[in-house]
Amino acid sequence: MTTDHPEIEFTPIIVGGAMRTGTSLLQNILSSAPSSNDMMVECQYLTAQLSLYLNWRNKDERALSDFFDGNKDFFEHLKSLVIDFMIRTHKQQGEPQHLILKHPEMTPFFPLLAQLIPSARFVATVRDPKDVVASMLAVAERQRELGRTSNMRQAGRNMEALTKLFLNFYRGLNRLLNEKPRRLLFVKYETLATQPQRLFPALTDFTGLDFSKYDPDADWKYTRPRGVNKAFDTKIRGKGLSSSSIGNYKDTLSKDEIATVEETAKNFMEGFRYPMVGGKNNALKQPD
Questions:
Q1: Which domains are seen in the chain, by residue range?
Q2: What are the start-end ranges of the E strands in 37-105?
Q3: Strands 184-188 and 98-102
C-alpha cells in the first residue's frame, strides 16, 4: 500500500543532544534568526510518537496485522502522523521558513526522523562528559529535595551508570552521520556558551539561518511565558552567554570518579577531542 504525503515547504531543524549539554542554548541561538520561530516548549509529543512506533514495530506481527498491511504500511502511517504534526506546528508558529524543534530525548530517533522527513536537518550538542555527569548529580539532588524520582536519582553516584545514561542519547547517530553526513551537525557546548560566533559559519551553511542580528547578551524569547523547572533550571538559563558551567566537575567529582567517567566515555571523548585528565589516556592533547 502506497501513500501520497503532502509536501513540507519549510525546513525543519531538529535540536538534540544529551540532557545537560546546552540543547536549550542552541535552540535559543537558532530561534534568534529572523526566519525561524521563537523558542517553543520541548517537543515531547513527537518523541512519544516515534517511541510508540518503534515499540510496536518490534512486536509480534499479529499485533498489527488487523490494522496495517505490513511494516511498510505501518511506517507510512507514522509518516502521515509526523508530516501532519510538522505542518500543524508550522502553521501554529506563524509559518516560519525554518521550524526549530527541540527535545533531548528525541536524539536517538534522529535516524528514523531522517527517513520520515528528508528535508529536516539535525543539530546535536555535545559536552565534556565529566561536566555532564556533575550537572546530572546537581539535578538529582534538587529532585531529591523536591521529592521526585528519575533514572539519575536511581543511579546515585554510580559514575559508570550516569555516563552510560549520557552516552545513550547518541546511540545511532554515527550511523546517520556515515549514511547521511549532510543531515547531521554536532556542536560543542564549550564553544556555544562562550564564542558562538565561531560556529555561525558552519551553522549558517548547514541550516540556512542568518545569525547577523544575534545578541549574546539578550534574554531568551519564548513563544509564551515559561514556568520554572526547579530541578533542571540553572541560574544562567534564559540569560546571556556564560562560561560558569564549564569545568564544574572539578568541584564535584573525585579523582576516581573522573577516571571512571573518562574510561566509560573513552570513545566519545577521543572522537570529540575532550581532554582526559584522570583516566588511562591523560596524554591526549587539548582540543583546538
A1: 11-221+230-271 (3.40.50.300)
A2: 98-102
A3: unpaired
